[in-house]
Amino acid sequence: MAERQTYTVVRPFPVGGGHWSSIGQALNLLEVEASALRTAGRLELKKTEAAESASPSTAAKKAAAKKAE
Questions:
Q1: Domain limits at 40?
Q2: 28 and 5 Cβ atoms separated by less than 8 Å
Q3: Residue 68 forms part of a structural domain
Q4: Could you give the CA distance from residue 7 to residue 29 in angstroms, rounded to a whole number?
Q5: Which residues touch 31 (CB under 8 Å, ≥6 apart)?
Q6: Count of domains forming the chain
Q7: What's the pTM value of the predicted model, to 2 decimals?
Q8: Would you tell me how many other CB atoms lie within 10 Å of the CB of residue 41?
Q9: pLDDT (tens digit, 9 = 90+) per residue, 5-49?
């Protein structure tokens, strides 16, 4: 199953049913859903997603350093 990522709304856009997104709103979307909105500058990938993906390697480095001591 495809993985959803969290995006932050930069510029509001219609989300359906007459409703609009709001600036700063966090949305969980598939890459396919977010692609055109990112290209148009309406969404950006939430910063914490990148930090979470980097955390395991940092934790692994710390564990290796402790093990070496």
A1: 1-48
A2: yes
A3: no
A4: 7
A5: 2, 5
A6: 1
A7: 0.63
A8: 9
A9: 999 999 999 999 999 999 999 999 999 999 999 999 999 998 764
